[in-house]
Each structure stands twice: as structure tokens, then as C-alpha cells.
Design a protein that fits this description.
Layout lengths: L5 E4 L3 E5 L5 E6 L2 E4 L4 E4 L3 H18 L6 E4 L4 E5 L2 E2 L2 E8 L2 H7 L6 E11 L8 E2 L1 H6 L5 H23 L3 E16 L5 E8 L7 E5 L9 H4 L5 H11 L22
Antiparallel strand pairs: 1-2, 2-3, 3-7, 4-5, 6-7, 8-12, 9-10, 9-12, 10-11, 12-13, 12-14
Helix pairs in contact: 1-6
This protein binds cytidine-5'-monophosphate.
Cytidine-5'-monophosphate binds next to β9, α2, β12 and β14.
Pathway: Purine metabolism; IMP biosynthesis via de novo pathway; 5-amino-1-(5-phospho-D-ribosyl)imidazole-4-carboxamide from 5-amino-1-(5-phospho-D-ribosyl)imidazole-4-carboxylate: step 1/2
Family: Belongs to the SAICAR synthetase family.
Protein name: Phosphoribosylaminoimidazole-succinocarboxamide synthase
């Protein structure tokens, strides 16, 4: 690890310089944080599970035509990704009121929304990632009108697909957060354009996932709300997706993976 140049360390991931120009290695840590890192813990095996789940989701999304930063998984904790300029916005899509929306608008958690809602938050830890309006995005130049339109279109398509994918394994997708990046693309005439592509990760750290039969939480709210059984729940998500062979191996060294190429 120390041989590679570290580009960035976030709360749950580290980015290293990749083997080729324009690539990075994304390393998934076991660290869990909540409430802007006021609450912290190390959850044995979480990084391995999120690496696998995010790989699975990104590959499925590529199949339906969503461009993503994912190139390939390298090992249990690392994936090779395209280097992008991250757009400084968290894009949240909600199907059911929960979390900050339930609190902000005084809704009962679990209230089904009449339609899916897309929200933007500014990626600023020091400000607690505040909710922003599209007017703010344009006024302060965080993204262009075209980029905002592309992000909304892709987010709703991702939502439709993921609702079906999780629905098929008995899980309701309550909400999720995604991030986008700008990829430099050289055009035929030699000019360079930016393509907006999906970046970061999609995992139980960044989604709310409730069991369809019981409403049991299978996501990071188990950590945020001290409910326990966090890696067990993530393991169950991976198992239902067909990524893991068994539901009872939650620790990284013992994880039983379907493809044994690590
Ligand atoms: O906390 P809130 O209700 O706004 O979260 C909405 C969704 O976005 C949840 O699925 C949560 O896990 C995710 N999220 C995230 N990272 C953040 C904020 C929210 O992954 N910094």
C-alpha cells in the first residue's frame, strides 16, 4: 500500500494513483462514520462487502447504459476506476420519506412519496453538506444547466432500475445518494469535452434498504441508530444479490465469495 501515491482519503474510502494515466484505485475501508464523522467505528468486513456490492451495482448499471467510473475489481477491497473531476454535489433520490427529509418536513418515516424526489446537497463537510436548490447550483457554478439535467435524468433511471433490482430480492429501495464526475473525452476534431459519469459507490452505506416483508433496516441506519448487526445486514444484502454463497460469514478473511479470483 505504501508504495502507491495516495491521492485522497475520505471517511470510508482511500483513492490511490492508478497503474495507467487517467485511472485510480479505490480502496474500501472498514471505517464507518455518521453525523458528519461525529460518530465513528470500525466494522470488520464492511469494506469488503461494499466493494463487492458496489461492483455488482455499477456493472448492472453499465449494462443498461449508465456510464460509470468502474473499470474492474482488483481484489477484496480495491477496484480500478476512471479518474474524474468530482462534481461537488451529492444527488439524493427518495421514494419513501426517511432520514433528513422526514425530519425536515415533519413526515412519518415510511410515508410513501407521491413521486420520486431528487435533491442536491453541496459536498461541504464543514457546512454539514447543506441541501441546495438548482438556483444555487447555477448561481455558484457548481454544475452547468446541461450537467444538472443529465444528473437528474441518470438518477431517475438509476432509481427505476435499482428499485426493480432490489424489489426482486425482497428489498424496498427507500432512498440513496450518488455522486457524479466529469470525464475528459477527446472528440474527433481533437477538442476535449466533459462527459458526466456516475462515480463514488452504491452500497448499503449510501442507500436505505428495508426488507419488503418486515421493514427491517438493512443499511447504514443500523449503525447511525445503534441498532447493531450492521455487517450482518450488509452480508444479507450481498447474499440476496447472489454475490456471497452464505449469509453467515461476515468477517473479511472468512468471506465466501462466489467468484474466487482474489
Ligand atoms: O440523511 P438523509 O436522509 O439525507 O440521507 C438520504 C440518503 O442518502 C440515505 O440513503 C443516506 O444513506 C445517503 N447519504 C449518504 N451520504 C451522505 C448523506 C446521505 O450516503 N453524506
Amino acid at each position: 500500500m505504501s508504495r502507491r501515491k495516495q491521492i485522497y482519503e475520505g471517511k470510508a474510502k482511500i483513492l490511490y494513483e492508478g497503474p495507467e494515466p487517467g485511472t485510480l484505485v479505490q480502496y474500501f475501508k472498514d471505517d464507518a462514520t455518521a453525523f458528519n464523522a461525529q460518530k465513528k467505528a470500525v466494522l470488520d468486513g464492511k469494506g469488503v462487502l461494499n466493494n463487492r456490492i458496489s461492483e455488482f451495482v455499477m456493472l448492472r448499471l453499465e449494462e443498461i447504459g449508465i456510464p460509470t467510473h468502474f473499470i474492474k475489481r482488483l481484489n477484496m477491497r480495491e477496484q480500478l476506476i476512471k479518474k474524474v473531476e468530482i462534481i461537488p454535489l451529492e444527488v439524493i433520490c427518495r421514494n419513501v420519506a426517511a432520514g433528513t427529509m422526514a425530519k425536515r418536513l415533519g413526515l412519518d418515516e415510511g410515508t410513501k412519496l407521491p413521486r420520486s424526489v431528487v435533491e442536491f446537497c453541496l459536498k461541504r463537510d464543514d457546512l454539514g453538506d447543506p441541501l441546495v436548490a438548482e438556483e444555487h447550483i447555477h448561481t455558484f457554478g457548481w454544475a452547468t444547466h446541461a450537467e444538472v439535467d443529465e444528473m437528474i435524468t441518470m438518477t431517475l433511471r438509476i432509481n427505476d432500475y435499482l428499485r426493480g433490482m432490489f424489489g426482486g430480492i425482497g428489498i424496498n429501495l427507500i432512498d440513496f445518494k450518488i455522486e457524479f464526475g466529469r470525464l475528459d473525452v477527446t472528440m474527433e476534431n481533437g477538442s476535449v469535452a466533459h462527459q458526466v459519469i456516475l462515480a463514488d459507490e452504491i452500497s448499503p452505506d449510501s442507500c436505505r434498504l428495508w426488507d419488503r416483508e418486515t421493514d427491517r433496516k438493512m443499511d447504514k441506519d443500523r449503525f447511525r441508530r445503534d441498532m447493531g448487526g450492521v455487517t450482518e445486514a450488509y452480508t444479507e444484502v450481498a447474499t440476496r444479490l447472489g454475490i456471497l454463497k452464505e449469509a453467515n460469514n461476515v468477517h473479511a478473511p472468512k468471506l465466501s465469495v462466489v467468484s474466487n479470483d482474489d
